[in-house]
Task: structure prediction
Amino acid sequence: MKIRIHSTLLVLLLTLPVWAQQQAVQMSLDDAIDYALENSLKIKNAQIAIADAEEQIVERRSTGLPQVNGSLNYQHYLAVPRQPLPEGFDIFGLFGQALAVDLYDQLSEPTQMAVDQSFSGNTGGGDEGIAFFLRNNFTAGIDVSAMIFDGSFFVALKAARAYRQYTLRDFATAQREVENAVIEAYLPVLLVQENIELLEKNIKNLEQLLFETRELYKAGFAEQLDIDRQDLSLSNLRIERENLVRQKDVSLTNLKYTIGFPVDAPLVVSDDLDAMATEAEVLLSEEANPATRPEVALIDQAIRMNELNVKLNKAGYLPSLRAFGAAQQQYQGDDFETGFWAPSAYVGLNMSVPIFDGFNKKAKIQRAQLDLEKARNQREDLVRGIGLEVANARTNFRNASSRLGNQEKNIKLAERIYETAQIKYREGIGSSLEVTQAEQSLYTTQSNYMQALYDVLQSKARLEMALGQ
Result:
């Protein structure tokens, strides 16, 4: 008995994490939006673009900072190159006896040996010539360069910072697009869920009516045709419910994909259509302000970048000035003991003045100005499109609100007609056909009401999007 108890506890402990993992996550519309903003790949890519823009600023700034490079070079001559001397060449006659001896004394011992071997005791050029290199050559140096003036550098740095602002505007646009996508994916799930609940309520009522009809049939107060009609209606409702359940699964999967939620994990939408359909008359009178739309801020930043592009190409006509310097140590010798080190160092300035480039910069300036003009035209078109979008959204919201008001009246009337038909049928003064007709009219009215409620919520959301809220 103890062993069985322990085994049962062990099974419960092992299955507890699995059971906990299957618990459905409930999300309101705001929860779904927040989850999408944290997990959407579009948002993550926009964040990567911002980080990349930050690195571009660092990259652009680095071109104006001093550049330091080190170098190492080693050469070993397997065969030392030699230069032939002209016939009758006399180094003492060329430089003078005293100067030639002084130059000879300043040479290293290996070099003197090379000279001695080259001349072979005479002043004429030997067959082998004279060697100006030793067998081993090693050089180590460091180079430094720094920009003193370059007009395009400062404009390019401003352009890099402007691009960072562009990515921030693009991030806000991506956030808005994700929010809109979540709303568009969330509302259908909510509509199907509400329809399923309404169908279940209708099925329950019809099952009760069918039970009462069968009892009346047993008592001789109803016909088999009455039972068959109600049974058919009940079967159709059950089939419709099954279809809606499958449709809900599809809509829920689409919502999970939109917000970046695991497709296999259970998810439940927790909002209520009636609670979400709040009064929004203030939206109908609110003035449209294109500046509140992230798309306008994005294109404004694009215009700013095009303006900087024009300045950048114009800066190409300015001269540039750079300073440079280098220091190095060079070792020469036939071996690594008897050779000598030769240090050297220098500094200098380099100015580059553009004179003529075949009208290349002029063409680039013209193209940049055309891009700027095109961007300004796009902004004007966008502002006009936003005005049209707001006007259409307001009209759609008015129409949807009007339809919802009418459907609210219709559903109350249909419910009253259905209840009256049931009462008449139970009292024996009405037919089952009259109940069936009232029932079908009620179901149609309920469906129309739910669709009108969904249209109101959707048109309200699109009006808020158009107004930049």
Summary: The chain has a mean pLDDT of 83. Residues 331 and 341 are 4 Å apart (CA to CA).
